[in-house]
Each structure stands twice: as structure tokens, then as C-alpha cells.
Design a protein that fits this description.
One of its GO terms (molecular function) is hydrolase activity, acting on ester bonds. InterPro entries: SGNH_hydro_sf (IPR036514). Helix content is 26%, strand content 26%. The chain has 13 helices and 36 strands. The strands form 9 sheets. Strands 4-3-5-6-7-8-9-10-11-12 form a 10-stranded antiparallel sheet. It is elongated and about 115 Å long. Helix 11 (480-501) runs parallel beside helix 12. The N and C termini lie far apart (108 Å). By secondary structure, it is an alpha+beta fold. Among the domains are: 3-145, no CATH class; 160-215, no CATH class; 320-508 and 593-606, Rossmann fold (3-Layer(aba) Sandwich).
Length: 607
């Protein structure tokens, strides 16, 4: 190997072949440690080679003899007497080499069987350790990377594992992340959560930033409430009364904890007094005397005073009573909520406001909350019916008598209310008559829902206003996803069919609320996405040009606290009764009057 002569001063460094390195006298005391390190490294390497015969290669490092006189060098190399400067390349190289040797002297080096000033350890491919054996860096024989923080090791499936003292700290395998031996899973109901194998929540950071420590695993995870408003773009009012808008009923999340501030603002222009009202709970009473033709709904999450969600609402105000006794021809299509006093209450209000409505249908509505009562106007309020019953895609126990055969119209008209509800009178066996609703096969016969067939078979007058409320039974009978899909497709088919048969008629879609109770709030979680879908359906079709399609957001005008049927409960000596809501589907007396008032108001504005 080439010999190196080092002169640590101003002397030049000279290279020669096949000679032992010699150090000039004046620098001997500076490089002696390096030479000693090299000598020690040679001894260790020689010993290691004799003990490990399996090593294929090793480096024999010969002992370095230190000569202390310049005369001993003169015989084998040509010495220059020219003094080198500090910028000379060889001087720079000498200085750098000195740093390298000094680092090796302090820390040691081990590679492939060759060791420089490193204590004997495992057969690592590469290792840097200090004099005490502390590993600064090492590449183990199996390819693992040893660092001060632990050992990084690749896995067979392309992942990795970081461990210390045999315990995994961080790992990644097959798309799964592990932390301190525990799996890391994606969640969407919190920012961060630490859970032990038994489900105990040690730490959680909620979506709202709140931190929970030592929360029980079975406690409901707090989800930041959404304040996106669920309401149509149209507000309907009559001049003789204010209309309530219940704040809680337009939020996607309902809770007793106040989450948002809702504001309605509108102006007719000076000198009229503008309308501006806000509420965190309860109702905003919409004053028809102060609202202009449009209003701005804004929602702000409490605790965040900057971002606001806004929606522009069209405001219609009908001056009542009207003159001339307008006589709109109205067809109600719906379920038990339509049957139970809805038509009765609407008729009472319209009549009081000067209208003379004509009601179209085959079933007499109820004048109470009883499903079998009569006394109301005609319509098609069919208890238990969902879109699948109307379209015939799945007739269940709510249609026990099946499809009404052609020619049986007189028998049907003579039947009582309960029997009428048991028939399906809308399905036409002539599937080529023009309807584009789905073809369904029942007892080997193909049918389509055909509105023209229904009107003609009973010699009914064409309505100029169709009021539809279907969806509640879809939610009750199906799961959340299936009911939402059925409502979307069902309204699509039904609206297309109404438009085919009654191109100029006005159509009003509406839906009710659930009461404020644990069960009611649970149902609301599935109900509000359906309401949002109905809002989207109407908004999309109106934007496409159907200006005669309307949405009455009756759920927003109906209290969740009052007007719902209660259990008999227990009455104490003080006369106070402890009770609960007994029916979370059918609004009670006051709540029925509220949704009927909202509908009557919409009809008055539209008719």
C-alpha cells in the first residue's frame, strides 16, 4: 500500500511507493496518537482475522514504525526543502486527513471485519460506536438500521418497524399504521383518540377541539354539531298572523346544548321598519307586516363569530281575507299524517280566509287523530303507505286487498274508508298508456302508476294544485340509506308523472317534524337527510324551469316541544304528572294545527 509521510507544520508532504511511513521529528508529538490508533487497529484486525475464519476477507494492517529523524527518510524519498503554504493542495489534504483520523481515534470505526478503534461487537456490516460501546450508527448483518432512538427494520410486505429493546414503537404494514404496539385506525368522529384493547378511551380530542381524558368507552362520542340550515328557499305568510320559525328544526343536529344563532333579516325599504330577529332556541316570529319580498337567513355557530352560513329566501305574503271566493281544486296525496286532520284543518283555515276550496280524491279524511275517523275533505291520505306502495314496487300489509281491478270502481266507491285504503287504485295494466313510471309485475300482470288512469277511472276533475307528503313510512320501513334512495327515486317518478298529466298544475311538497325527545332526536338523524334531499329536488327542478313546483318547509314551522301525544304518566300529590311522548311520528293536536296552518298559508299564496 502507498506510504504517507506527514509533516504537521509548514513542511511538504511527500508520497512514495512501498515504504513505511515516517514522520519528521518536529511533528512527531502531534501525530503520535494517530499512529498509535493505527497500530491498535492493526492489532485488533489481526486478532479478529485469526478468530473468525469464516470472514472471507480481512485487511492486514502492518505495524507502523515511527522514525524520529529526517535522515532516515532521506535515503528512500526525495525531500524538498521548499516550505509549503497552508493553501497548497497537499497541505489541505493533510489537514482533512488529520480530521478524519482524529474522528476515528475518538469514535472508532468498524466495517466488514476491519475495525479501527472500535470495541468488538456483533458482526455488523457497518458500525460507529464510542469508546463505551454506544452505537451512533450501525447497519446490522440483516440490514436493520441501528440508530440512537431504536432499530429500523424493513418488513416482508414493504412496511417498516421501529423498535427499542425488542418493543415496537412505530410500525407500518399492509396499509395499517401501528403506534407503541397498538393499531392506528382512521376515525371521522374525532380528531384524535387513544383507546386500549378493552375499549377504554384514555384521551380524545373532539372535532370541536375539546379534550376528554379517561372517558368511558360506552359514552357517546361528542360530535361537533352541523349548523347547515335544512329549509327550502320559499317562505309563505298571511297578513293576519305571524308565522313561527323554530330554530332547532332547521339544524341538522338537534341538541339541548345551544349550538348556533339563527337570524332572519328582511326589509321593505324606508320608511317601513325592517325585520331583523335572532334566536338560539325557540322560535323566530316572522312578521308579515315587516318582511319584504326576500329575506336572508344566516346561521352562525356559537363560539365562532366570523363564518356565517347564509341562504336567500323568497317571501310571499297573502293579504287575507280574500275577495271573490277563489276555489282552488286540491288533491292531497300522502300517508297517515295527511289523513289525520290535515285536510280538515287546511279547509277550516282557507274557508276563514275567504277561499272555497274543492277537494279531489276517493277517501274522506279524518277530523281527528283517529285513522278511521271521517269528517274531513276528500283526498288520498293512505295510512302506512310509502313510495313502494304508491308505485307498486313492493305492496305490503298496508295494501291487503291488492290492485283494484278495472271495472271494480263502483264497488270501491261504495266501500268504507278502511277497505278503500286496502286497495291500490293507481296501477294501470295498460303499461303503454303514456306513464313512464316503473313497470311492476303483480300476480303475473304488469302495471304502471298512472295518474291519468286514476283520475279518469273515478271521473275526478283535474286538480290545479297537488299537495304531496310521502317519505315518513319509507324511513320507518327501510334503513337510512335505502329509504333515502327510495325517496329520491320515488319523488322523481311521481313528479314526472304529475307533470305529464297536469303540466300547468302547482305542486307543493311538504313534510313534518319529529318531537324533541331521545327517540325523536334519533329519528331526526335519519329524517333530516331526507328533508335535505327533498329541498334539493325542489331547488334543482325549479332551477331547471319548473316554477310551479314549491316546497313548504312545514317542519320548520312546527314545534318539537308542544302538541305531541303523551303517555298517561304518573300524577303526584302536587298535581304534576310525569309523562313522556307516546307518538314520535304523528303530530298531536296543536302540532297538527301548526303544519296545517303552514300548508294553508302556502296554498293561499300559490292558488
Amino acid at each position: 500500500m502507498p506510504a504517507v509521510i506527514i509533516k504537521p507544520g509548514n513542511g511538504a508532504t511527500v508520497y512514495s511507493q512501498n515504504v513505511r511511513p515516517t514522520v519528521e521529528a518536529e511533528g512527531a508529538e502531534l501525530v503520535a496518537p494517530l499512529v498509535a490508533a493505527a497500530t491498535r487497529a492493526a492489532d485488533i484486525a489481526s486478532t479478529k482475522a485469526s478468530e473468525a475464519e469464516e470472514h472471507r476477507m480481512f485487511t492486514e494492517v502492518k505495524a507502523v514504525e515511527v522514525e524520529t529523524t529526517a535522515a532516515a527518510v532521506a535515503d528512500v524519498v526525495h525531500k524538498t526543502n521548499v516550505t509549503a503554504t497552508s493553501e497548497e493542495p497537499l497541505v489541505l489534504f493533510k489537514t482533512a486527513l488529520g480530521f478524519v483520523f482524529a474522528e476515528l481515534y475518538a469514535r472508532g470505526f468498524r466495517a466488514g471485519g476491519v475495525s479501527l478503534n472500535a470495541p468488538g461487537q456483533s458482526d455488523a456490516m457497518l458500525s460507529i460506536r464510542n469508546a463505551l460501546g454506544f452505537v451512533g450508527f450501525e447497519v446490522a448483518a440483516d440490514g436493520a438500521l441501528v440508530l440512537p432512538g431504536g432499530t429500523w427494520r424493513g418488513t416482508t410486505n414493504g412496511g417498516f418497524d421501529l423498535s427499542t429493546l425488542g418493543r415496537s414503537i412505530l410500525s407500518y404494514e399492509g396499509g395499517a399504521l401501528g403506534l407503541v404496539g397498538a393499531p392506528v385506525k382512521a376515525i371521522d368522529d374525532a380528531l384524535f383518540r387513544v383507546v386500549n384493547p378493552l375499549g377504554f378511551v384514555a384521551l380524545q380530542i373532539g372535532l370541536d377541539g375539546n379534550v376528554a381524558i379517561n372517558a368511558a368507552a360506552n359514552e357517546p362520542v361528542y360530535t361537533a354539531p352541523s349548523v347547515t340550515p335544512v329549509i327550502g328557499t320559499q317562505l309563505y305568510l298571511v297578513s293576519d298572523r305571524p308565522t313561527p320559525l323554530y330554530v332547532e328544526n332547521i339544524l341538522t343536529t338537534r341538541t339541548d346544548v345551544e349550538t348556533a344563532k339563527v337570524t332572519i333579516a328582511s326589509s321593505k325599504g324606508a320608511p317601513a321598519q325592517p325585520f331583523a330577529a335572532s334566536a338560539r332556541d325557540g322560535a323566530i316570529m316572522l312578521d308579515p307586516a315587516r318582511l319584504g319580498t326576500s329575506a336572508t337567513l344566516s346561521v352562525r355557530k356559537l363560539g365562532d363569530r366570523n363564518p356565517r352560513l347564509t341562504k336567500t329566501l323568497t317571501v310571499s305574503v297573502k293579504a287575507v281575507p280574500v275577495s271573490g271566493s277563489p276555489a282552488p281544486k286540491i288533491l292531497l296525496i300522502g300517508d297517515s299524517i295527511t289523513n289525520r286532520q290535515t285536510g280538515y284543518n287546511i279547509n277550516a283555515l282557507l274557508t276563514a280566509w275567504g277561499f272555497a276550496p274543492q277537494w279531489i280524491g276517493t277517501i274522506v279524511g279524518s277530523n281527528s287523530n283517529s285513522s278511521s275517523a271521517t269528517g274531513g275533505p276528500l283526498g288520498e291520505g293512505r295510512e302506512g303507505w310509502a313510495f313502494s306502495d304508491y308505485l307498486g314496487t313492493s305492496l305490503d300489509n298496508d295494501v291487503p286487498l291488492g290492485v283494484l281491478a278495472v271495472g271494480q270502481e263502483a264497488t270501491y266507491q261504495a266501500a268504507n274508508k278502511t277497505d278503500k285504503r286496502g286497495y291500490q287504485p293507481f296501477l294501470n295494466p295498460n303499461t303503454s298508456a303514456g306513464a313512464q313510471t316503473p313497470i311492476v309485475t303483480i300476480s303475473g300482470v304488469n302495471y304502471r302508476f298512472d295518474l291519468r288512469f286514476y283520475l279518469d277511472r273515478f271521473s275526478l276533475t283535474d286538480p290545479d294544485l297537488v299537495v304531496v307528503n310521502i317519505a315518513m313510512n319509507d324511513k320507518t320501513e327501510l334503513g337510512a340509506a335505502a329509504s333515502l334512495a327510495q325517496v329520491k327515486s320515488g319523488y322523481g317518478y311521481l313528479l314526472d308523472e304529475i307533470r305529464r298529466v297536469l303540466p300547468a298544475a302547482s305542486i307543493i311538497l311538504w313534510a313534518t317534524n319529529h318531537p324533541a325527545s331521545s327517540a325523536g332526536d334519533t329519528e331526526w338523524l335519519e329524517w333530516q337527510p331526507i328533508l335535505s334531499a327533498i329541498v334539493d329536488i325542489v331547488t334543482t327542478r325549479r332551477a331547471a324551469g319548473d316554477a310551479n313546483l314549491h316546497l313548504c318547509s312545514t317542519w320548520a314551522h312546527q314545534s318539537g316541544e308542544a302538541g305531541w301525544s303523551l303517555t298517561s304518566g304518573t300524577t303526584g300529590a302536587d298535581g304534576v304528572t310525569t309523562t313522556t311522548i307516546s307518538d314520535i311520528t304523528h303530530p298531536g293536536a296543536a302540532a297538527r294545527e301548526q303544519h296545517a296552518e303552514a300548508l294553508a298559508t302556502a296554498i293561499a299564496c300559490i292558488a
